Amino acid sequence: MNTVAATDGNASLPQLIEKLLQQQGVSYRMRQQRHAGPAAQQIQACLLSDNIGTVLILIPKDHLLDLKRMPELLGRELEPMRDAQLSHILAKHQLNQLPGLPILFSSPCVYEQSLLEHPRLWLDSGLEGWCLELEQADAKALVAKASGARFAVPLSSIAPLPSDPDQDHQDIHAAVQNFTALRMRQRLEETIEIPPLPETAQKVMKLRVDPDANIDDLTDVVETDPSLAAQVISWAASPFYAAPGKIRSVEDAIGRVLGFDLVINLAVGLALGKTFNLPKDAPERTTPYWEQAIYTAAVIEGLAKVMPRDKRPELGLNYLCGLLHNFGYLVLAYIFPPYFKMICRHLEANPHVPPHQIEQHVLGVTRDQIGSWLMRYWDMPDEIASAVRHQHEPDYRGDDHVYANLIYLSLALLRERGIGGGPLMAIPESLLERLGLERDQATTVVEKVLDARDALRVLVNQYQHTWRS
């Protein structure tokens, strides 16, 4: 049988790969990724490794690869191959993504048996934006020398986020209990020793709810914290705000450049950020924590400004929601330090699965639940706790839904441009209608933010430097 290399565009596989497919009698059609079929019929490839060698794993994209099952299945403790090593392998074949082609790798291949139950399959070609369409017979020929098994976890079997936020306490406690020998009756805050809300944040939050508070009051609080004072002045002097003249004092920075609300949010974000260290481990191919936080805050701020006035939420809280939306990630690493590495490796092995679903499967609780619980424990505004918890629910219409909806839209827009982690996020028309936005407006906002990427990066670096100090 000859290889059929029909395409619906101009891309073509490297000659060596085409020759190998032809030798194996595998016919295919080159398709643009957007024309691929249902997730159950799309193949997700992952190259795992240990000190023995590598193993190629093929699963449907509506399933999750549970690394904890590998020792039972293969008798080996395997982890996703590091990006540097993988990039070297792909470069040899003139590819920029991992293809689901066992013929390219001199290593065993294991595939999820349910894949071959479908009449047609689509697998990543190794070229960004393109996939290979295979008939069932050709898919069987492709994995003829591989081993089939039933080991992947259907995403449909992973429990959704509970509808009641009061359940979060029990879920976190149960997750702690699963990984420790602590008694179930211990209170959560005693079990994981969560630190209190930092003093500076407490003072700033009191000013936020005080209708008589002014710039002088905020200046007094900021000036009592040297690192915060330096941060406020450096932000005001950054290219992003392009303030005329030299910034001479904290009062000057607040009154002339940043404004009362923005400094309130920056101060709270900085104070909370310094409560937990960035984890030493992190999933590869994800945006660094503070970079994602600040980009998300900037996009949310821009979206809120173009919303109709009758739908527009409190602008100050918007920015703070953006800064804190992923705070549960830090707390997750703090609560489960021995298991955070496991979560990181699962995120790398399953780039097609949203991170919160991976966490739900591995731990029984998500970073969104943990972050939201901590916001409530610290008596932060209800809007923030709700936004953090429901940020991955595009159809959420509960109390203060606008904040959660704006986080979701911001994350989805940034993900389309390669910022963040996990798969692309759909943007339902109903979400845009709820916020009173047009897609073109949202696109313009995120493009303006990314046009200022160099200036934003300065702010990110300043935030990271102040945190480390």
From TrEMBL:
Looking at the Swiss-Prot or TrEMBL record, what is one Pfam family this protein matches?
A: HDOD
Out of the domains of life, which is the source?
Bacteria
Q: Name one GO molecular function term.
A: kinase activity
Q: Which UniProt keywords apply?
A: Kinase, Membrane, Transferase, Transmembrane, Transmembrane helix
Membrane spanning stretches: 317-336
Asked whether the keyword Cell inner membrane is assigned, the reply is no
UniProt keyword Transmembrane, yes or no: yes
* Ranges of residues in domain HDOD: 194-394
Fetch the InterPro entries from UniProt.
HDOD (IPR013976), RNase_Y/CdgJ (IPR052340), UCP036888_HDGYP-like (IPR014627), YbaK/aa-tRNA-synt-asso_dom_sf (IPR036754), YbaK/aa-tRNA-synth-assoc-dom (IPR007214)
Q: Show the PANTHER family listed in the entry.
A: PTHR33525, RIBONUCLEASE Y
Name it.
Histidine kinase
